[in-house]
Amino acid sequence: MMVTMKVVGLGIVALTVSLELFGWFLSRLRSRRTLNEVLFFPSKVACVEHTFTPNSHHSCCCSLPHSVETSLSHLLRRILSASTSLDVCLFSFSNMDLSRAVLLLHSKGVSIRVISDKDYSAITGSQIGILRKAGISVRCDGSSVHMHHKFAVVDSRLLITGSLNWTLTAVQNNKENVLITEEPDLVKPFIQEFQRIWLLNDPAQNYQNIKLISTVQEA
Amino acid sequence: MMVTMKVVGLGIVALTVSLELFGWFLSRLRSRRTLNEVLFFPSKVACVEHTFTPNSHHSCCCSLPHSVETSLSHLLRRILSASTSLDVCLFSFSNMDLSRAVLLLHSKGVSIRVISDKDYSAITGSQIGILRKAGISVRCDGSSVHMHHKFAVVDSRLLITGSLNWTLTAVQNNKENVLITEEPDLVKPFIQEFQRIWLLNDPAQNYQNIKLISTVQEA
After folding, report:
1. Mean pLDDT for each 10-residue chunk of chain B (219 residues)?
2. What is the pTM of this model?
3. Fold of A35-49+80-202
4. Which residues form the PLD phosphodiesterase domain (chains A, B) (predicted)?
């Protein structure tokens, strides 16, 4: 009887300790998985070829420094990590490296949607026309005020946001920040905001509205 | 002997279960404490008097809607929660409600530091001169490029950052975002960036540099 009690007692203790350790391990794993990081700009000027073609590290012979990790190369890598979708909502988009990343993802079959400010999508150097010509879904926010967001959502999971417009001046010259997070409480509102602005600028919807206004005016 | 074994066994089990429950309670408390939220703009136009004087909710007789919670009132409340320090790093600062919040905190003895872009600190409506006249420590980033950040850190604990410049147009008209978080991995880099730019624009340091350059030129 005493032996049985001992065995049962020790068994319960062992089980509880195991559960405690398992819980601790899971919580450690969870906290490690939630990515939270900040990049600051201006980025060092360096070759970013290795972010596009990781295996040709030594093959690029441009005059810029090589094998240097910069804020831009890190940002590119986060964007290029997209495997299913990339939603981009930008006031201004003229940076050719960032545009190349979006085009590369598109060529790999990643579903891309781009929203930009109407006024800034037509300025010199804007990549919006190039993305549209490549077959990427682009909508320009047509409201009379600025669509001043500068964010992207990778695979409906990773938020990239901050002060940085995707322009050469912002990347190479300005003091800027980019915050990258997987925290659901921060990512979800941006997914909803993207969807809201995307639908708000649906050309089919706008065409129907114009038709409705014409009908009312004619009546 | 058997009774002793029983008591010791049960005691260990009870202790382990208690520790497990205590750990769970602590982790729940911790996850609840970590604030993560997002505000979107434009903000509804409404009276924000109650955020400054919470007890005089019904005493304001301006023509704007009252008792309405808006993105601006929420942002003001987060800023006004500062009890020891507020560090503000803004490209453009002309919004009078946000300026009033900073001045109110200053009058209560909260330690305030403000960094702004040199070019934009002198434009019409800028609050930078008003803050400086009130005795608040202000430094203007004198580099030839844009200091394009739009962030604030409350009590070295709470980060407020996003696309929103603290201007009336940004608050009332533009599509903008403000991300508010206590996540240390996100807050700490911004504290360091503030300190870096603050020291970079130390007038004493700059005065020494000018003296050094003059001495070299004279030599």
Report:
1. 76 78 69 86 94 76 90 97 98 96 98 93 88 96 92 98 96 97 98 97 75 62
2. 0.83
3. Endonuclease; Chain A (3.30.870)
4. 143-170
